[in-house]
Amino acid sequence: MAVLNNIEALNQSLMQMMETDDTIIVFGEDSGFEGGVFRVTKGLQEKFGKERCFDTPLTEAGIVGSGIGMAITGLKPVAEIQFQGFVFPAMNQIMIHAARMRNRSRGRFTVPMVIRMPYGGAVRALEHHSESIEALFAHIPGLKVVIPSNPYDTKGLMISAIKDPDPVIFLEPKRLYRAFKQEIPDEIYEVPIGKARVLQEGEDITVVAWGAMIPECQKAITMLKENNVSVDLIDLRTISPIDKETISQSVKKTGRFLVVHEAVKSFGAGAELISIVNEKAFLSLEAPPSRLTGFDVTVPLAKGEHHFIVNPEKIKNKIMELINF
Amino acid sequence: MAVLNNIEALNQSLMQMMETDDTIIVFGEDSGFEGGVFRVTKGLQEKFGKERCFDTPLTEAGIVGSGIGMAITGLKPVAEIQFQGFVFPAMNQIMIHAARMRNRSRGRFTVPMVIRMPYGGAVRALEHHSESIEALFAHIPGLKVVIPSNPYDTKGLMISAIKDPDPVIFLEPKRLYRAFKQEIPDEIYEVPIGKARVLQEGEDITVVAWGAMIPECQKAITMLKENNVSVDLIDLRTISPIDKETISQSVKKTGRFLVVHEAVKSFGAGAELISIVNEKAFLSLEAPPSRLTGFDVTVPLAKGEHHFIVNPEKIKNKIMELINF
Amino acid sequence: EKSEKPSLRKKVLATPVARKMAKDLGVDITLVKGSGTMGRVMKEDIKNFHSSDNKKK
Amino acid sequence: MLTEIYDPLKGEMFQVMDQTGTIVNKDYMPEISDELILKMYRTMMLSRTQDEKSLQYQRQGRMLTFAPSMGQEGVQVASAAAIEKTDWVSSAFRENATWLWLGQPMENLFLYWIGSEEGSRIPEDVNLLPIAVPIGTQCNHAVGIGMSIKFRKQNSVVLAYIGDGGTSEGEFYEAINYAGAMNTPNIFIIQNNQFAISTPRSLQTKAKTLAQKGVAAGIPCIQVDGNDIFAVYAAVKEAVERGRNGEGPTLIEAVTYRIGPHTTADDPTIYRTDEYHQEMLKTDPIIRTKNYMIEKGIWDDEKETSLKEELENLVEETFKKIEQTPDTSLEDIFKYTYAEMTENLKEQYEEYKAFLQRRDK
Amino acid sequence: MLTEIYDPLKGEMFQVMDQTGTIVNKDYMPEISDELILKMYRTMMLSRTQDEKSLQYQRQGRMLTFAPSMGQEGVQVASAAAIEKTDWVSSAFRENATWLWLGQPMENLFLYWIGSEEGSRIPEDVNLLPIAVPIGTQCNHAVGIGMSIKFRKQNSVVLAYIGDGGTSEGEFYEAINYAGAMNTPNIFIIQNNQFAISTPRSLQTKAKTLAQKGVAAGIPCIQVDGNDIFAVYAAVKEAVERGRNGEGPTLIEAVTYRIGPHTTADDPTIYRTDEYHQEMLKTDPIIRTKNYMIEKGIWDDEKETSLKEELENLVEETFKKIEQTPDTSLEDIFKYTYAEMTENLKEQYEEYKAFLQRRDK
Ligand SMILES: Cc1ncc(C[n+]2csc(CCOP(=O)(O)OP(=O)(O)O)c2C)c(N)n1
Ligand SMILES: Cc1ncc(C[n+]2csc(CCOP(=O)(O)OP(=O)(O)O)c2C)c(N)n1
Ligand SMILES: [Mg+2]
Ligand SMILES: [Mg+2]
Ligand SMILES: [Mg+2]
């Protein structure tokens, strides 16, 4: 067992998987020689050579498009998009090829590829470095979308993503990259894609969140002890496909539901979760299933970002509102 | 008053607006000489010259990106993307520039641009010619998203879109292009963006739909007369920003809610509407607010598309399910 | 079929849970006077209605 | 090196056989057996027959919208003939003669154009990607396959096709540049058929040739007469050798002409004059090849007539068979989104199946 | 025509003044007043001073991540000096000297890098687009502006900047090709500073020069010594004339060097050896220009010292003022998404305002 942060967990999972499977190829802008702008791929080129870990030219469409070609011919590409805000030039390849190749070719060609990207805000960054657009990917059939919140899940989910026979969008909350460390197993292990995790059990309300919102929810829950409110906190971990069962079981128990996310509100992942709760647990509802999210604006630059960010105080307030509904 | 189909209504609105405002520029792949693959821009080049209506090279990023540059410098671009399935190369420009220029520059630069695209399925088309991805655009702050369902609205909304000071994504249900004709005013008139329209009033359930789903809902409603069920049918017309008021008023009256859309189910616009209903009319709900949509798969080619398409029979069935809940 | 619908289209404000409770207890929720904000029918209201109804019998 | 001899920047186009079928450039006539020429001709004719019949079927409402390859069979067959079974092909949507040559069954081609994904189920032994409708995207797939080949130290190459219009898309350029930077065994063939739907080649770019776009990527490039099977064959062979020798990618512009409409939904008379069209018909690669073969004494009218009859029958039989294909099953709609159906999809599938069963009772 | 004389395909780079500040190419020395040279030098120095101070401020935690322009002031100032107030500029994110020259107030520049959108509120009389972070995207905006200018029969041109890394993005190519096809008055300047973050120029493309990428678009192109203000000025002037004369776009590769880190988040010692760095420092455009001016007798140590002092004070004063800027108001977060706040946004705004008020009571 080693004590690692999220960056180190990513690095370890890549390192170990590349050791066991020499069809895994890691690449992206600056991913090779210097190991990526966040050092997630540090040491991989040194260890596995330039053929298995390399710097690409500045071409997101090329990175994903070539990854598709590699995957079709039996390699396992793990491609890095430097920031999620720069994935748009590759949207065409992701949404109309990676997601569809299996269906289009009736299973003859598949794209077992991982597309990693630093995700989310609250790091006082420049424009295009703070968005959360998981909902865009999740709307596309054929893609899986994963967002870990801690080093244990990060390693386990990355390993699952690499082993997954379909394309996985792997979103890494950059706010959590080095935020804390955790003791995690040294060996290869999997955290299943598509399974949420109940982080703590409670009676009064179900709260679903993911990524960097998890620690914020935990802080809010601690604050809520004095109000005598107990919370079922669920780390969704996989945005698509959603673990409807875990969520609906919880809501049937608590009767109240809140989803917390960083992304803007409208047409976000929160809306899908609310709809699922309506479909699966309507008759248990004691209050409107609700969401607490970013505002429907472009993420503000640093001097205004604090308004936008969901924090424990906002979460506590919203939970109390629902408890008192 | 002339009797026009949707194509003719579009053509007339462009023609008339170009006459009154010589900063309006129309362009896209094949939009000039031949007037577009659907002939929406037919006759414009002949009438207004190659400077105001022209063919572009095959570059969606160029079309939208150059449109942004034109708009910033005072022109009013009406750009055509040949099919919505081919908009992805322009996503970068649409989502990270058109949508944000006003906010980024604190109002110094704005993008009063219309981006038109044929939208939706059920026309037995090739791959990438049948999708409905309004939810992707609607999730992006700074964009407006419009989908008309009849020639009257088509003309009025196009005129409003051109006059709108912000970028408008104008989605044209290709299944309705020539499906029927309607008598519409000869003169320039506006249909406001952001306002839904109650097409017919009823007591038992609220049904919200848009585009090509409207005629399907109307057929279903006719079938439902024998079941003695009366429906409030709302044509949403604008996907973003949504007219929450009209919808919540209706649901408060009926207590039941169904949204019908062509797009795939998960993370679609239906989820947003269900969330709005929960926020605005929770205590009136007598059944779970629900959605009837495409399946979460790539739209099948013609030989399988009938499974995917929402039809009056499916709508009727779903409505009865909710009535009997 | 449609005959199952609550009587006379009278609309009440209530949570889904309260509605279910009414249904389970055989209470016509439209007859219950709500004590909540804007006349919302609370679970207590249904319980009270039900027990007084039972007493009457 | 042909790419050094014929400089697109000087407006030089590589041609071996002229419009009449005469060899005008003997030095560069590739070594090519009569048997291979006859096979090429047969495939060109097969593709042409299929297109002609398909146009009829489409008019009769028996086929959906489709994109004919008529006029471009020369570049398609000759380029495909220059590679091996172990090489790969990533094409766009108008490469019918290539597909036939590679062994994609005509059954599949018809299936695709009547609206079945089964048409894109490429046989296991055919190294061909499915039709890529979104312009330009297929080029980066080819680069990735090139990287796979290089990584595995295989000896294969990858052919990718794109249209003249397609060269205006960023992805085309990204792919040729990326392939150059990675030195992958890629061959990019621009089928310059003069039009992108209604938009003439001249509106796509100020560049005098499309071949010269290779200069931007620093890779060898050449313009060839795309209706001259010998020139195409020779140029592609050279590029293939370059690829196999680890010398990286090549860009080839093949000048050709789209005889038919863009697709059956298109009316080319709007944007092409009859005069121009008649003039361009003279460049038809099939006529030219036939003339060459007749001149060489390996072909005659009789053979032509019997081939035509044979191919017409073949196409008709195949289409009739395919036409009977039942609609796509509900299960098949759901089955291929992921390796395993998700709970969500199972739910949608079961729910709809139940609805259908209720309804049909 | 410089673009005809200096052929990037032959490896020819246009230079007027060598590394020592000596004019080595008198024939092409542009007509340029001492006053203008002094003004250029001042702006280069101002930008350099601002960058140096900013690096300090950033280390002190008083500024956020920012991208210094050090080493590239020559190409930036000389290109901006070659256009008029009525022309337009669309830049990326590392054009500080250009921005200063054009009249974007240093206040705004600092505001941007301390995290305020107010920094991108370009003054009404400055024809400059805000910083475009997503690589390559700014080029198509420039094409659109070029189309506006053409449409209105104005006499202006548009300058767009992009980096060496940026030339691998499809949008860069789409823009130059589109501009060529539309014959717009665009000038594209590639600032080849040898790196895209850690990725060296050599990994971006097999093309020997970046200038030659213009061949793909069929437009004139030239490689210039980007640290030679006279070469840059002359090449841009020529391109400007071309644009104003309706002869279409030009592509200019300016060879330069990024002295500092990519941004303050970057550590260039990982991927650049000190030896290489020291060697490249010798190409510094500021030193070179100074040498030229001293040689010409229009500059001396005294002037240098007093200029330095003046600029340091100016930068410090400006930053101190800006540092006091309060946080962005809640209203400003919502106000600029659309011309008018939608009902939805009003709701979110009011709800949050109410929450804050409750909380602060
Ligand atoms: C990205 C994208 N944009 C638009 C289209 C619509 N479209 C289909 S074919 C075509 C023209 C293609 O022209 P060209 O590349 O010359 O190929 P050709 O049709 O001549 O074979 C267009 C615009 C598309 N398929 N993909
Ligand atoms: C589309 C896109 N991809 C990735 C990035 C992240 N990124 C920022 S700067 C940069 C390198 C740019 O290199 P170059 O074009 O040479 O410009 P320079 O930084 O040297 O000025 C990268 C990859 C981005 N901003 N946009
Ligand atoms: Mg073409
Ligand atoms: Mg692109
Ligand atoms: Mg650079």
From TrEMBL, chains A, B:
Listed InterPro entries: THDP-binding, Transketo_C/PFOR_II, Transketolase-like_Pyr-bd, Transketolase_C
Taxonomic path: Bacteria, Fusobacteriati, Fusobacteriota, Fusobacteriia, Fusobacteriales
Domain Transketolase-like pyrimidine-binding: 4-179
Keywords attached to this entry: Oxidoreductase, Thiamine pyrophosphate
Keyword Oxidoreductase: yes
Organism encoding this protein: Ilyobacter polytropus (strain ATCC 51220 / DSM 2926 / LMG 16218 / CuHBu1)
Protein known as: Transketolase central region
Gene Ontology MF: a single term: pyruvate dehydrogenase (acetyl-transferring) activity
Cofactor: thiamine diphosphate
Matches recorded under Pfam families: Transket_pyr, Transketolase_C
EC number: 1.2.4.1
UniProtKB/TrEMBL annotation, chains D, E:
Protein species of origin: Ilyobacter polytropus (strain ATCC 51220 / DSM 2926 / LMG 16218 / CuHBu1)
Highest taxon, organism lineage: Bacteria
Reactions this protein catalyses: N(6)-[(R)-lipoyl]-L-lysyl-[protein] + pyruvate + H(+) = N(6)-[(R)-S(8)-acetyldihydrolipoyl]-L-lysyl-[protein] + CO2
Sorted UniProt keywords: Oxidoreductase, Pyruvate, Thiamine pyrophosphate
Assembly mode: Heterodimer of an alpha and a beta chain.
Cofactor(s) of this protein: thiamine diphosphate
Entry function: The pyruvate dehydrogenase complex catalyzes the overall conversion of pyruvate to acetyl-CoA and CO(2). It contains multiple copies of three enzymatic components: pyruvate dehydrogenase (E1), dihydrolipoamide acetyltransferase (E2) and lipoamide dehydrogenase (E3).
BP GO annotations: branched-chain amino acid catabolic process
EC assignment: 1.2.4.1
GO molecular function: pyruvate dehydrogenase (acetyl-transferring) activity
PANTHER family linked: 2-OXOISOVALERATE DEHYDROGENASE SUBUNIT ALPHA, MITOCHONDRIAL
Annotated Dehydrogenase E1 component domain residues: 41-328
Record-given protein name: Pyruvate dehydrogenase E1 component subunit alpha
